[in-house]
Amino acid sequence: MASTDVDIKKLLEAGAHFGHKTSRWHPKMAPYIHSKREGSYIIDLTQTVECLNEALAFIEKTTSQGKQVLIVGTKRQAKDIAKKTAEEVKMPYVSERWLGGMLTNQKTMSGRVKHLKDLETKMESGQLASRYNKLELQRFQEEIDDMNNMYGGIKNMAILPGAVFVFDIISDKNAVLEAKKLNIPVAAIVDTNVDPTDITYPIPANDDAIKTLDLIGSYVKQAIQSGQAKQKTADK
Fold it and tell me: pLDDT tens digits, the chain, 236 residues: what are they?
């Protein structure tokens, strides 16, 4: 059982129950659908609470073991929330674009991250400034900025994460596929138009409403913090 207390009223207020149009649905989401309203499906929030509690308990357990949770949200509504959630608990994240091999090609990714860190170290120490002119320095800084945009969120992901949390499994289907290939458990929001089969811990909810994404992101953050606190206690 997760330490985080999920409030069904808050989910309702955030619009977590609003699914997609009935013409845009996936049959495998049928068990999570409560009813239809004005041509759209309504998600059963009692199941959302149950599923979210299971996902949060798993996330808490994962971080209590000292493992990382990779937070993924690259679509417009989710990217700022994904980044904020991850940064507040010092977890790796992808909020701009999922690059093929972020999980499955660790050798290449590690090389790119090492190059980024080396450039940053040389820039901060003044090593580059002592050897290059202003224009060349500007180009190095642009390279650093571009690489941070692509790899900044996984800069401190030394090994594969213990879990992946995804805000939208259609936008970030490649993250789900790579995690599945490596047998990394995935917790994710699943709306009425998706196939939840590949998700270890599906959370039926509206994946478009910013209020819903923000609320679920806050629950994920709390679960991570609870796990981190347990790890610190165990280490004493």
Answer: 667 789 999 999 999 999 999 988 999 999 999 999 989 999 999 999 999 999 999 999 999 999 999 999 999 999 999 999 999 999 999 999 999 999 999 899 999 999 999 999 999 999 999 999 999 999 999 999 999 999 999 998 979 999 999 999 999 999 999 999 999 999 999 999 999 999 999 999 999 999 999 999 999 999 999 999 998 787 76
Interatomic CA distance for residues 55 and 165, integer angstroms:
9
Burial 194-224 (b: 16+ CB within 10 A, else e): bebeebbbbbbbbbbbeebbbbbbbbbbbbb
Alpha helices in 102-235 (DSSP H): 106-125, 134-151, 173-181, 210-235
The residue type of 66 is: G
Task: Give the count of beta carbons closer than 10 Å to the beta carbon of residue 192.
Answer: 24
Tell me the torsion sign for CA atoms 146, 152, 153, 154: positive
Q: Which of 190, 219, 216, 211 is nearest to 32 (CA)?
A: 190
- Report the C-alpha gap between 145 and 110 in whole angstroms: 17
CB 207 within 8 A of CB 189: yes
For residue 109, CA distances in Å to 176, 183, 184 come to 17, 19, 18
Beta bridge partners of 49: none
Please, which residues bridge with residue 8 across strands?
Answer: none
CA 89-119-121 angle, to 5 degrees, is 65
Question: What's the distance, CA 142 to chain centroid?
Answer: 26
